[in-house]
Amino acid sequence: VEESLKPVFILIRPQLGENIGAVARVMKNFGLYDLRIVSPRDGWPNKAAQSMAVGAIDIIEQAKIFDCLPEAIEDINTIYASTARKRDLNKQVVCSHDIASELSNGAGKIAILFGPENSGLSNEDLTRSNKIITIPVNQNFSSINIAQAAGIIAYEISQLYEDVSFVPNQASEIATFTELNNFFVYLERELEKNSFFQVPEKKPGMTNNIRSIFTRIDKLSSQEVRTLMGIIKSLTR
Amino acid sequence: VEESLKPVFILIRPQLGENIGAVARVMKNFGLYDLRIVSPRDGWPNKAAQSMAVGAIDIIEQAKIFDCLPEAIEDINTIYASTARKRDLNKQVVCSHDIASELSNGAGKIAILFGPENSGLSNEDLTRSNKIITIPVNQNFSSINIAQAAGIIAYEISQLYEDVSFVPNQASEIATFTELNNFFVYLERELEKNSFFQVPEKKPGMTNNIRSIFTRIDKLSSQEVRTLMGIIKSLTR
Question: Which residues of chain A have a CB within 8 Å of the CB of B93?
Fold first, then answer.
């Protein structure tokens, strides 16, 4: 996805600067940069927003401020309204878990609207939206913080971008089969010496059980196999 | 899933009460209730935590406080350490997007550890964990707020619980094919009268195009079809 086609987050009449800053921070965590704010209650710039944004201060500094929603969406093709409460509107409701696959079909430049903390989006805001996006929450406590909602939606959308990616641990020298097998052979010889296998016909089953314990250790390293070997050597000294 | 088997969130040496409160709130949003706190920097109880929790004050009041991690995990079967930074450990790293399917296989009682805001989990904490859970973030700005991380993990896990569910809008009277078809027949007759179809052989294609526009309106209601009908009547009066 081209940077210019990444979704825009629009905060409508947000009340707390802290929440604006938290939205900016989590947007940047998930590779989003275009924050627009319609009629912030406490004016602009906002110290609390700057402070909460920490390393995402650039998102706050580049945020665009508008007097009303129509001005903020002039260049937008498809508008999603995020709502927690159920609304009686005949609009398609998209579950947050499905938003990445929905957006991967392409819908031009996307905006996602977030309403004020106390009241959510107005009916007028909802009328201007093409679809509704909802995060499934505990129906006995659905009051989700605006920055949490923005974070979850940004997190879901980020699956579409290559610059936000899952980095698995770079395993340092995972032990080979031979290294672990040498350990088993050594351990079993020592156990034999110490009469661990009292009933000969049970020996194959018992060695299998022992090998099964150690082969379930995920990503056992060569160094860790040497440590295990050292333990056995030490115990039999 | 039984309530008693729902995962436990453990905050280790958290610094800001605001973050503890925000974690409690988002846990409850996603149907989680067991919050444990190891050695909170500013002591306990914490006014800022209570204030940020709002409707999740019960989670704060029931939170259990411990001096050290081993006391907090006595009843836990499987421990996941949440980390944003890459760590050089030969532990399995589970991506947050996969955690629900991973937990659906069953691993007894689960705890998810969250480290202090400034430094993250210590190596000692990580050593006590069975696996690592990581949220894929922008590699140029991976500093995610602890309550945001807790929120995203709770959100993912909540897919396993029936009490947190997606509630689609209850559509009020979606129009039937016949209602919409009656509108099309009426509209086309009026257009015919007004010589809209100047080239007879193009009429079928043009009516198809018009019908295609209106059939793409998602969840068009009977009332809305009547409104459209009223518009045509008004324009031709």
Answer: 168-169
Would an 8 Å CB–CB cutoff place A93 in contact with chain B? yes
Q: Does residue B90 register a pLDDT over 80?
A: no
Instruction: Give the minimum alpha-carbon distance from B172 to chain A in angstroms, rounded to a whole number.
Output: 7
Q: Is B75 exposed, middle or buried (0-12, 13-18, 19+ CB in 10 A)?
A: exposed
Total count of residues recorded for chain A: 237
- Alpha carbons A184 and A182: distance in angstroms, whole number: 5
Query: What CA dihedral angle connects A192, A196, A201 and A207, to 10 degrees?
Result: -80
> Touching check for A223 and chain B: CB below 8 Å?
no
Residues 28-67 of A with CB under 8 A from B: 28-31, 54-56
CB B117 within 8 Å of CB B150: no
Does this model's pTM top 0.90? My answer is no
CB of B146 within 8 A of CB of B19? yes
Residue A110 DSSP SS3: strand
Identify whether the C-beta of residue B73 lies closer than 8 Å to the C-beta of residue B81: no
- Residue A175: left if φ>0, alpha if ψ -120 to 50, beta else—which one? beta
Quickly state the pLDDT bin for A175 (edges 50, 70, 90): confident
- Chain A CB contacts of B25 below 8 Å: 143-145, 148
Burial of B84 from C-beta contacts in 10 A (0-12 / 13-18 / 19+): middle
- Kindly tell me if the per-residue pLDDT of A1 is higher than 60: no
Tell me, what's the pLDDT at B1? 55
What's the pLDDT tens digit per position in B146-201?
Answer: 999 999 999 999 998 876 666 655 556 888 888 899 999 999 999 999 889 989 99
Nearest to A138 among B164, B169, B221 (CB): B164
Burial class (CB in 10 A: 0-12, 13-18, 19+), B132: buried
Nearest to B10 by CA among B49, B38, B33: B38
| Whether A152 and B147 lie within 8 Å, measured CB to CB | no
Alpha-carbon span B115 to B125, nearest angstrom: 9
- Output the pLDDT for position A164: 66
A140/B148 CB distance under 8 A: no
A75-to-A9, A13, A26, A210, B6 alpha-carbon distances in Å: 13, 20, 24, 65, 45
**Per the CB < 8 Å rule, is A141 touching B28?**
yes
B17 touches A: beta carbon within 8 Å: no
